[in-house]
Write a structure and sequence with these properties.
alpha/beta; 5 strands; globular; disordered C terminus; single chain
């Protein structure tokens, strides 16, 4: 299966190589700093439908997201695919990440439980109780 046939929201390096070999291009990239020693990469490519970004995963996703131990190695990974555009680094949880389609809830700073609850909820929450505010008397 080549990079054009992937159905999930992630890429492996082999998917990128295959898509680029077939004439594809990397259209956008950004890096998320999960910590000072944990960086992940999101790419958007022209052979993927929509405007979403996809996170880079390990081989067959066997170990989850492909983490880079330093910013220089993450930057080098993006550049080796001939993407010469701007590469912004965002800290995990940065509100600016919400503008991108395909960002992992982990990188948005949301817990998995919050995401599932939001997906399940189809009604507005009940109104908050109306508590009386005690008056403060001068002392």
């Amino acid at each position: 299966m080549d990079g054009r046939e992937r159905l999930d929201n992630a890429f492996e390096e082999a998917d990128l190589r295959s898509g680029l070999k077939d004439g594809g291009q990397v259209l956008g990239a950004f890096i998320v700093a999960r910590s000072e020693e944990d960086f992940v990469i999101y790419l958007r490519c022209n052979w993927i439908r929509g405007r979403g970004f996809r996170i880079i995963r390990t081989w067959r996703g066997s170990s989850g997201d492909r983490a880079f131990k330093n910013l220089q190695s993450a930057w080098g990974f993006v550049r080796k695919f001939n993407f010469l555009g701007r590469v912004t680094v965002y800290p995990a949880g940065d509100p600016e990440l919400r503008q991108f389609v395909g960002v992992s809830p982990k990188d948005l700073g949301e817990s998995v439980h919050m995401v599932r609850a939001a997906a399940v909820a189809d009604e507005a929450p009940p109104p908050l109780a109306n508590h009386a505010t005690p008056e403060l008397s001068p002392g």
